[in-house]
Amino acid sequence: MSYLRSAQNSLVTLEKDVALASATQSNAPEGLSQSATNALSDILADVDVAWARALSESGKRKTAEIRFKLENLEKRVDALPRLTFLRELSELDASFDVAVEIFAGDGFRFRKDIGNLIDSSVLRVRVMLVFAVATAILISLSLAHAIVPPLNRAVGVARSIAGGKLDNLIVPHGKDETAILLSALATMQESIAEKIAHIGDLMKSQANRYDGKIALQGARFEAALNNMSQGLCMFDENERLVVYNKQLVDMFGNLEIGRSAGEAFDDPDIQHLLSRSVDTALMHELSDGRIICLTRQPVLGGGWVDTFEDVTERHRAEQKLTHMALHDTLTDLPNRVQLREMLEATLQKCPLVAQTAILCLDLDGFKSVNDTLGHPVGDALLRATAERLVASVDHGDLVARVGGDEFSIVLRAANPAEAAERTARRIINALNEPFAIGPHQVSVGVSIGIMLPGRLEKGAAQSNVDGLIKNADLALYRAKVEGRGTYRFFEAEMDARLQARRALELDLRAAIENDELELFYQPFVDTVRRVVSGFEALLRWRHPERGLVSPGEFIPVAEESGLMARMGLWVLETACRQAVNWPADLKISVNLSPVQFRSRTLAADVRDVLNKTGLDPRRLQLEVTESLLLQETEIVLRTLKALRDLGIAISMDDFGTGYSSLGYLSRFPFDKIKIDQSFVRSIEARENLAIIRAVIGLSRAMDIAVIAEGVETLEQCHRLQDEGCSEMQGYYFSRPEPEEELARLIIDVGLRLSAERSILPISAEDAADKNRSVRTASPS
């Protein structure tokens, strides 16, 4: 896992380096090849090690998949545009997250299996050692029984002969050494005079041999006994201590052979342990904190053997492994495994379900902290967040970290709804306070989703752990959508909306692959010259079953699901490719989503599209909304400046509907502002007319072109002309049409303008007076 995380960190570093280079350089691969190739080689080396050490087939498959993608990317790095390169790096990052989760699960299972294997092996070793000791003792006793009596008989004969008695009856049996000795004694009796000295030497030699065998057996037994890893003692049939080893003395102090089982040990803890009945193995914690495992084995003929093993360190290691398996390593909070176990236990007890609330939390702004200040600050922030969360809940409530900047809380209360709401407010207030992380003052927020299992109908599909967590996530999603920094309770219709949204997202992904997207165009009309001055490209989705899907329905889904960047690039390239074949005086306007500005390569992407399609940058106009400028203003303004430096005109859409439009005009000189249709539709209202008049006057003063959208009637057209607005857009002139209808549309609009006598071109003097500083979207 270390090698896998190292490879992922290197991948993230490469992704940031490429993104940073793309913000200031071309999207062409020059300058990227060598550094990217080196980085990919290092990443591949780490992935190879991770693959070789993977514990499961799923881990090997996932790392093999990553290796294949990396090798393929390394081969193509010279030819890939940086945007494509970045997208593939992002996909690889997601694959790494999945591989890390697989490796973590494999590691936990591996440790658990090894622990079980060690326990079973230790037990078998204990039994075998006890059996070996008992067998050695029995063999020693048997040898003594077999050797000593015959030897005593031979010694008696020898003593008798030595005492001068030479009529001893000597009858040797068998062919063993004792029989040979007796035969020799018989021979001695026959030739006592000649061989008395020889017989004495022979007897002494034989006695030494047998004494040496007994001494050797005793030495072997003592060596085996004192080199055991466990302490051992044996009691005979009278419950008297007959054997003990050095390890037992080291564990419990000096012992004395012959003492009873009740008196053998001075420690009352051990005396109590010996007095208990032991079937196989007994674990016991001593007063000094040591944990002893006692194993008892009866001995044939009475008595028993006790073995003692100090398992303190092993027990602590097992506890540590168990803790690691159930807790987050960064914050030491319970992890997802422990959270699921608690929820599963809760679902087994109906009374607990009605008293439980589940809170899902997600930090607002954490990614920005991690990206700007680095992962060490991000980790410290997560630890500090964990401390505040624990301080914000009651005793007995569970606070778990389930991943990244996501946390979950399980509350128990008689009134779970009231307790959850109270806790949510307390947490929001606590996390709104700035964090002091080293020299940094870090501010984040939190959004909270709340699920009350007791409100579900009995037997409902969501009444399982995964369903409860999913419902809490849905409530969290609602809290984020409705402004962040707040909390929301789960409601049944949230799930229905989610299913519909997921179906729409799946269809939209298929639409991109199946070329179901197309562009419609709505004209910009110059009412002074009575001509079409350009077109706005509008994205349409022609679903095979639903027909044309409203952009207001699928654009938010595209932005939230990450599809908008790809779709926006397709819209820009398609519009430019089609517009390059239009007359040179027609401009093309393309809307940019705020989501597209999250890519640091946006300016480079636009430049690449212009180079690829051959469109003159002066014919391209990019429209942005004020909501884009509400976040990361400096970054957005730098990107807009880079786009304008390419020769592209920048237009602010929906001008006047926000709170900071004038401020942004002072910070960035837009080429055009578009009067929002909400003012045009109610132009007869005095306040709306005043706003339109002010916008037009502002545009003259700042030398900014102005266009009005949403013109639907001749009266609206007249009023706008009277105020000095000559460029308009709306259903009065034309609805959006596909590209193949644009030639006819231009002719129809021209004929309509010419036929409508009420729309009169103003005089040259009036035009000079009203539009002296106004620049239109068409060339003069």
Automatic annotation (TrEMBL):
Q: Any stretches that span the bilayer, and where are they?
A: 127-148
Q: Which InterPro entries match?
A: Biofilm_reg_signaling, EAL_dom, EAL_sf, GGDEF_dom, HAMP_dom, Nucleotide_cyclase, Rev_trsase/Diguanyl_cyclase
Please state every residue range assigned to the domain named EAL: 501-750
SMART domains reported for this sequence: EAL (SM00052), GGDEF (SM00267), HAMP (SM00304)
Q: Which UniProt key words apply to this protein?
A: Membrane, Transmembrane, Transmembrane helix
The residues covered by the GGDEF domain are 354-492
Q: Which Gene3D superfamilies match?
A: 3.30.70.270, 6.10.340.10, EAL domain (3.20.20.450), PAS domain (3.30.450.20)
Entry's SUPFAM superfamilies? EAL domain-like, HAMP domain-like, Nucleotide cyclase
Keyword Transmembrane among record annotations: yes
Q: Boundaries of each HAMP domain copy?
A: 145-197
- What's the superkingdom here? Bacteria
Protein's recorded name: EAL domain-containing protein
The organism's taxonomic lineage, starting at the top: Bacteria, Pseudomonadati, Pseudomonadota, Alphaproteobacteria, Hyphomicrobiales
